[in-house]
Design a protein that fits this description.
Elements: H1 6-14, H2 34-43, H3 49-56, H4 62-72, E1 92-98, E2 104-107, E3 110-112, E4 116-121, E5 127-131, H5 137-151, E6 157-160, E7 167-170, E8 173-176, H6 178-187, E9 190-193, H7 203-216, H8 225-239, H9 251-261, E10 274-279, E11 285-288, E12 291-294, E13 303-308, E14 312-317, E15 320-326, E16 334-335, H10 338-360, H11 373-380
Parallel strand pairs: 1-6, 6-9, 12-16
Antiparallel strand pairs: 1-4, 2-3, 4-5, 7-8, 10-13, 11-12, 13-14, 14-15
Length: 389
């Protein structure tokens, strides 16, 4: 009825398991070479399979030999397990400068790639970034303070590499710069420097740099650094609400616990940006970075306080504002306020008229004709300046 041999049926009934076709294995062509492979691996556990093939005179398929070496190598190579780094809430944030591979118009015909300060919180993976005018200490810590003020709290430790404004490793020890020490002291936190040539120590922010380059930049154009920061802020608001594969949630979901464990912002803002106290010279300009900014000439020769942040340059004298300018990102520029220029012209005209009067002396009698002061203006080429008689 089944159409098969009775002996087959009897064997199936007598077996404990269902019948299955089995064919004895023929072995592998690598079996004969295995003793030689083991001998080489015992002495050189990291020897590549291609070198092993050359040493034993292997003439057959290299794939078969590689498969056998892959099975045997773990028996001779020491186990090297990797550790998984975990972060506690509020513990740290990794920081770095990213130089985007695009040219941003800075004004006055200049185009460049200014640095972008990038910060990533270890626990929540909250990503923060902002383009800065330069990588100098004044701009770097002003950018830090701007990002931390937006965050509303300060991580207990900031992880940095050997950026010159942060500090350097000397004689095997990290040494923070004076500006970095002052900044961390004002915030009550710690700044840790990675060893030179160890980018893996801040892998979170290194991957964030790559994420910005592959997800933020493509398809975008920028007309100014302000436009770059505006677009970046809009993109970060979306990026921080996307699902993060490593933590299996959104950074925004962990931010609350992260902020609760961080250090509170200080009641008094730290002194960041560019700050200087100088005596205003006769040309009534002050220099920030490589740019010169005009100051009202009425305070020439007096001590003025110069304060500049990421967006503004302000100059005060005895508590009174005598100059205010938008921060110029283009290098080697001279920024002049028309009010300052006009006031300088008036003061210059008054000075010239006084000098001319002293040179001619007062008239002895009414019979001597007096030269008009406008004649001196014409001779000196200042005729027509408003406010000059």
């Amino acid at each position: 009825r089944m159409g098969i041999s009775k002996n087959t049926v009897k064997s199936a009934l007598a077996a404990d398991t269902p019948p299955k076709y089995r064919r004895p294995g023929k072995g592998s062509i690598a079996d004969a070479a295995e003793p030689q492979i083991r001998k080489l691996l015992a002495e050189f556990p990291d020897m590549p399979a291609t070198v092993i093939a050359e040493r034993i005179g292997w003439q057959r398929s290299l794939t078969v030999l590689k498969d056998r070496v892959r099975l045997l190598r773990p028996h001779y190579k020491p186990v090297d397990p990797s550790s998984r780094t975990t972060y506690q809430a509020g513990e740290l944030a990794q920081c770095d400068l990213w130089f985007p591979p695009v040219k941003i118009p800075l004004g006055a015909g200049h185009r460049a790639s200014p640095p972008v300060l990038v910060m990533v919180s270890g626990y929540s993976r909250w990503l923060m970034a902002r383009m800065l005018p330069s990588r100098t200490a004044g701009d770097l810590f002003a950018g830090h303070w701007a990002l931390l003020s937006q965050l509303g709290a300060v991580p207990k430790t900031l992880i940095w590499d050997n950026e010159s404004a942060i500090g350097q490793w000397k004689q095997g020890k990290p040494q923070l710069s004076a500006d970095a020490n002052a900044f961390r002291g004002a915030l009550g936190i710690r700044i840790a420097q990675c060893r030179p040539g160890d980018p893996e120590a801040k892998g979170l922010v290194e991957r964030a740099n790559g994420y910005l380059e592959t997800s933020f930049l493509p398809g975008r154009g920028f007309v100014s650094p302000h436009d770059f920061n505006t677009q970046l802020a809009d993109w970060l608001a979306k990026a921080n609400t996307r699902h993060h594969r490593r933590i299996e949630c959104r950074p925004a979901d962990r931010l609350g616990a992260d902020l609760a464990a961080m250090v509170a912002l200080p009641p008094v803002a730290p002194a960041v940006g560019w700050r200087a106290s100088v005596r205003l010279p006769r040309d009534h300009y002050v220099r920030i970075a490589s740019c010169d900014y005009s100051v009202h000439p009425s305070v020439i020769g007096r001590l003025v306080e110069v304060v500049a942040d990421l967006g503004q340059v302000g100059v005060t004298c005895a508590g009174q504002m005598v100059a205010r300018h938008e921060r110029c990102w283009a290098p080697h520029q001279t920024i002049t306020d028309p009010v300052h220029e006009h006031a300088a012209a008036l003061l210059r005209g008054t000075r010239l008229r006084t000098a001319a009067t002293m040179a001619t002396g007062p008239a002895d009698t009414d019979d001597v004709e007096q030269r008009r002061l406008s004649d001196y203006d014409t001779a000196l080429g200042i005729e027509g300046i408003e406010g000059v008689a």
